[in-house]
Amino acid sequence: MSGHEGDEGVVFEIAVVVPKLGENKGDCVQSDEADCVEVLVDELRRTGLIVERIVGLQNEFLKLAAPTEILGKAAAELQFRKRTHIGMDFPFEWDEVEAFVRQPDGSLFSWCERFRCYNHIIYGIVNTKKSVIELKADNTVVDWKPGESLLQKMESVGIVKEVFPLHDEKKRKQLLRSWAMNWLDFTSQPIDDICSYYGMKGEAHTFFFRSLQLLVLPVFFICLISWAVLFFQFWKRKNSALLARWQVYHSTCAETEYKFSQTEQSTYQSPTEVMKKQGTDKMTEKADIQREEWFRWLMRFRNDAFIILSIICLQLPFELAYAHLYEVIGSDILKFCLTAVYLLAIQYFTRIGGKISAKLIKYENNDNVEYRADSLVYKVFGLYFMQSYIGIFYHALLHRNFMTLRKVLVQRLIISEVIENLLENSIPYLSYSFKKFRALRNKRKRDQGPSMGKTRSIPRVEKEYLKPTYAASIGQELEDGLFDDFLELVLQFGMIMMFACAFPLAFAFAAVNNITEIRTDALKLLAVMKRPIPRADATIGAWLNIFQFLIVMSICTNSALLVCLYDQEGKWNLSPGLAAILIMEHVLLFIKFGFSRIVPEEPAWVKAARRKNATQAEQMCSKKLLRSISGDEKLFQEIKKNE
């Protein structure tokens, strides 16, 4: 059965890729065995999903859509906590659906919640019989054991090649008009639409804009640091407001909540059972928690020490050797070629270090995926920080050669951006085009050339399957493609901030580059890549701490650069000029750490709403809980006596 590309009113959001069968399906199914794909389709439809089968040129695709009722029942099984109209968060119940607040776009669930519901439904199909079911797959027999997930079994044997989210064509075209192709609007972005389509973890783009240099550069430096501090402080306020509007709160991540609700249901017991358990297992639980805490700390310390020693013993000599060669080479062409070769080589070596970091994180026993991702970010940033800045520090502070420093900054910014743009946009597009060409060529070979008639075009769902995945270059199981985008942004931010006094024009280049990348990244996400798997992170995590670190570093490095410009003879006398630079540094550090106290990170209405919700929850639950505890008091005393 081959369907059309989509019925009107039905939005297919998930696709399952299976091998394309021959024309005579019935010939390959024995009397006591069932075809794997047919069984999968029947089971998916039995769960209430809408299944449409699309036969492509190379594979067959099962497009899945779910009515709101099916998603609601899955959300109830997953125990999603959602905001109600009285301002409190309760576990979702389908029978009381009208009590829960809908999303800003009018839908009941966000894309991240819907994706989790789809996964729960399709991976929750298990063999409920007591005997093994034999399934036919080409010329092999697959044993579907009792209690085993059908989809996981088919993935393990290679029948299901991939499960990936589909683009919603209507919303995708709307975002193309309002986001990717809207070149005239440089300041505002359709944040709500982007969040609704891609999930909570969205992409951030930041715009960065000798006779008189001793007066102009300090003023420029002060304005720059003040802008960075104000920007990030007000960004945190804006982030808090958006999270409140999107009904996302700083609680345990979704994965931890799901694991807790599934494996710790014994916690939800009567007050008597809870008090009994606390009385008997308190000391054992305390010892286990302390042991686990110290074990985690030792694992993190071991991994961090290994990364730091690797940077010092392996990467630092390599970086200093490059910086020294750049200093002694006289030809500008040779310097430019040396930088290009160096950047290509260091990308390869740094990714090896990142992969080692990802493997080390598996042994840290972190609480959830978000903590593991933050640990990976810190380790990989340490590698890239050394790679990106140690050579520049060498030219700036050791040799005080500002002409060479400016050349290095120009070459680093231009060459690195060209390489990143090639990796981000050109290579994925060429890969996608080559896959389409190869699929059409293979189809023509199977049809024995053009004499059989016009070759059938590639279905839309197969085009999406051929698109590259929006994945991170390092630690794909922990991060998506935003990892590389944030890493590029952080390195660029640090380069133009920490050496602003040496090359102020770098801000003009960064502003033009980032304005362009807003549109190119939007086109990449909407037209070149598969729809990313949603992630429900409440903040940008470790990246925010790295940005704050770079601001502090920029205060120190630019103050040192001003000192080098002022004291060119290197006498280091405490003259009025040097004293003014020292005072300016302390004032800027005070502004950096004191401004967070002046401007709160959360708007007042967000705090008021949170306090109101907490008060309502306490008023509604306290009386019922106290009544339950009082009713079980006698029974509890008897249990204590028996013990």
TrEMBL record:
Keywords: Membrane, Transmembrane, Transmembrane helix. The keyword NADP does not apply. It is a multi-pass membrane protein. Residues 216-612 form the Anoctamin transmembrane domain. InterPro entries: Anoctamin, Anoctamin_TM. It is found in: Membrane. The chain crosses the membrane at residues 214-235, 305-326, 332-350, 376-397, 489-515, 536-562, 574-595. This is Anoctamin transmembrane domain-containing protein.
